[in-house]
Design goal:
Layout lengths: L1 H13 L2 H4 L1 H11 L1 H26 L13 H18 L6 H6 L2 H16 L3 H28 L8 H27 L6
Protein name: NnrU domain-containing protein
Membrane topology: Multi-pass membrane protein
Subcellular location: Membrane
Length: 192
C-alpha cells in the first residue's frame, strides 16, 4: 500500500499545485520557463502514475475488503465510465457543448471515473485510490470554477459537429479500454 500512496501523493500533488499555490506556480514558470515547467510536471506525473499502477498491483497480493459493493454497482459503473471517457476529449476539442456547459469536463470525467470505480470495488486499495482521486477531482473542479468566475472566463459557442467528434472519440477510447486494455493492464475485464 505504501507504493500506491506514494504514487498518489506525487501524482495528485503535482496536479494540485495550481489549487494550493497558484502564485508559486506562476513564479516558477516565470523563473524556469513554461517548457521546462511542463517537462518537470510531466515527468513527475508519469512517475506518480507508474507508482500508482504498480502499488495497486502490489496491494492485490493482500486484499482487504472494506465493504461489499452492491450488485448493481458494476452495472452502473460501466455507463458512468463511458460518460467519463466522453468528457476527456471534450476538454480538448474546441467549441463543444460539454466544454461550454461544464467548463472543465476532464476534471468531471475523472470525478465520474473515480466514483464509478468506488461503486464497483470495495477493497482497501480501491477505496484509497479511487477515494483519493474523487476527493481531488471535487476540490480541483471547485477551484477551477472559482478561477473562471474570478477571471470572468467565458467559453465559446458550441456546435453539434464538435459534440459528435467528442462522443465518437470518447466512446471509441472507452471501448478499446473496456474490451482490451483494462483486462491486459489490470487483469479485470469489466465487460466479461
Amino acid at each position: 500500500m505504501t507504493v500506491l500512496i506514494l504514487g498518489l501523493l506525487i501524482f495528485l500533488g503535482v496536479h494540485s499545485v495550481r489549487i494550493v499555490a497558484e502564485d508559486w506556480r506562476g513564479a516558477q514558470i516565470a523563473r524556469i520557463g513554461e517548457k521546462r515547467w511542463k517537462g518537470i510536471y510531466s515527468v513527475l506525473s508519469v512517475v506518480g502514475l507508474v507508482l500508482i499502477i504498480w502499488g495497486y498491483g502490489l496491494a492485490r497480493a493482500h486484499p482487504v475488503l472494506v465493504w461489499t459493493p452492491p450488485t448493481w454497482g458494476r452495472h452502473v459503473a460501466i455507463p458512468l465510465v463511458a460518460i467519463a471517457f466522453i468528457l476527456v476529449p471534450a476538454a480538448h476539442v474546441p467549441n463543444n457543448h460539454f466544454k461550454t456547459l461544464l467548463g472543465h469536463p476532464m476534471v468531471l470525467g475523472v470525478l465520474l471515473w473515480a466514483f464509478a470505480h468506488l461503486l464497483a470495488n470495495g477493497t482497501l486499495r480501491a477505496v484509497v485510490l479511487f477515494g483519493a482521486v474523487l476527493l481531488w477531482a471535487i476540490v480541483d473542479f471547485v477551484a477551477a470554477r472559482r478561477r473562471d468566475v474570478l477571471a470572468k472566463t467565458t467559453y465559446p459557442p458550441a456546435n453539434v459537429a464538435r459534440d459528435g467528434i467528442v462522443i465518437v472519440a470518447g466512446l471509441a477510447a472507452w471501448a478499446l479500454f473496456a474490451f482490451v486494455l483494462h483486462g491486459w493492464l489490470f487483469g479485470v475485464r469489466p465487460l466479461g
